[in-house]
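Entry 12.
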Amino acid sequence: YSSDKKDRPPCKRPGCGRCMKLLQHVCIADTYNRRNTPIRTLRTRWRRKKSRLSRSTRQSSRPCRPRLLPSGCCLKLQNIIILQNKVDLIKEAQALGHQKSITAFVKGAFALDELRAPPISAQLNYNIDAVIEYIMKWIPIPVWDFMSSPRLIVIRSFDVNKSGTEVNERMGSVTRGSILAGVLALEMCIEICLGIVTKVQQGCKRCRPIFSRIITLLVENNQLQFVVPSGLVGVGMLIDPMLCRADRLVGQVLGSVSKLSQIYTELEISLFLLQRLLDVKTEDKKTMKVTKLVKNELLLINIGSMSTGGCVLSMKVN
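Predicted 3D structure (tokens):
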């Protein structure tokens, strides 16, 4: 059911007559993309402590898993369910063979006590109840922080005004993201940082935070008075639509005024290198090994939901 379903809807089984009981809301984010899977996975899975990987039984387990498993290893995911989809298109012996190949391939990639890879058919709703049971029994509910200052990572931003709307009929802008901590409420004054970034002089930039007020809070079709951590939420604000158009605020942080962290231009980090490059092959169709970082090397860095470029200034071996 969608999130706007009643908490106690009537049971659909013939002759039951009782009402069902709401146990848990589950938020699912789709990150599958053949070319950008590692980047999209790092952008969305960082804010969750669970993951659901899906593969088709008509494909070998080799092409899909190398792009997803290293990303999961970097994020240290512990609660993982691998869905073996489209089992209605193959025979039982083939499905069992695919399940064994999945188990053998992911063995050692994660510190799992038991690998859970139920066979399903998404179009025919086969074994979907088993997936729900897995989520309820094996994936614990995270412990969220409601007392800290609210912080929301923006993963989408867009202009909700249609083309040709009159000036006096224009609404503000909408951002979508996940709350890491705290609680957001209607009419709350907020700050978005970095905000507007401009070049002051050569090599220097200035960040001007954006200040606004929350006018709407929306989760799917549900209008709320306040929102808490977990899941995706849409935040409507009184901001110039030009600033939010075409995901211009992606990667920025939304929170209470003067409560956000400082802005840094240089970082000192500890890193973990993958064994092989993802989706990069040589002329003999072999994957390339990852070499150590060197000074002045250009990197693509994922911080929260933001992807940005960076340059290695110095290296130190611990």
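Annotation: Helices lie at 37-45, 61-75, 92-106, 128-138, 241-244. The chain is about 15% helix and 30% strand.
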